[in-house]
Amino acid sequence: MSGYAREFRRVTRADFPLLARWLATPPVARWWNHEWTAEAVERDFGPSVDGVEPNEDWLALLDDHPVGLLQRSRVVDYDENLRDFASLVEVPDGALTIDYLLGDPSAYGQGLGSSIMSAFASRSFIELPDAPAILVSVVAANVASWRALEKAGFRRVAEGDLEPDNPVDDPLHYILRLDRPA
C-alpha cells in the first residue's frame, strides 16, 4: 500500500464491523482504549451517523480502500473538550478539533498519518470557512501521533496534564494547532 490518502467519506452503519475490527487491533486499542463490541460501536458512532450529535465521523480512503477514521467537531460542541483545551490554551471562537486513527495495519509506517491529517485539515477549512484553527490534544507518550501532526503542519502550542484515554498513560498531553492558511 502506497500513496497518499486524500479522499474521505462519511461513516455509515455498514462500516461499523470495520470500525470494530480497527478498534480491536493492538496499536489502535493501545491509544484509543475503546470498546469494540457491536453495541459499543453502535452507541458511540450511531449518533454521528444519524446526525443527532455535532461530531462527524469520516473514513480516510486510499485507492477507495478505508485506511483510517477521523472525527471532527467544534471544540465548543463538547463541554469536556472545551474544558480540557481551555485549561491549557486559548480556544479561538469556532475552533475545530479532530481525533483520528490509522486502522488498517497495512497502512502503518508509511507516513499516511501526516498525509491524512494534512488533507483532512485542508478539507475542513474549506467546508467550515469560519473555523480559524484546528486544535488537537495528544498524550505525550504517543510519539507517532504528535509527530504525524507536526509533519502535517501543526505546531505544539501547549503541554499539560489532562485525563488520558488509557489509564496506563501519564496525563501529560501536547496541544497542537493548525491555523487557517492566509
TrEMBL record:
Transferase listed as a keyword: yes
Record-level Gene Ontology MF annotations: N-acyltransferase activity
Domain N-acetyltransferase intervals: 6-181
Keyword Transferase in record: yes
BP term (GO), one: response to antibiotic
One Pfam family recorded for the sequence: Acetyltransf_8
Keywords: Antibiotic resistance, Transferase
InterPro entries noted in UniProt: Acyl_CoA_acyltransferase, GNAT_dom
PANTHER family: LYSINE N-ACYLTRANSFERASE C17G9.06C-RELATED
Entry protein name: GNAT family N-acetyltransferase
Species lineage: Bacteria, Bacillati, Actinomycetota, Actinomycetes, Micrococcales
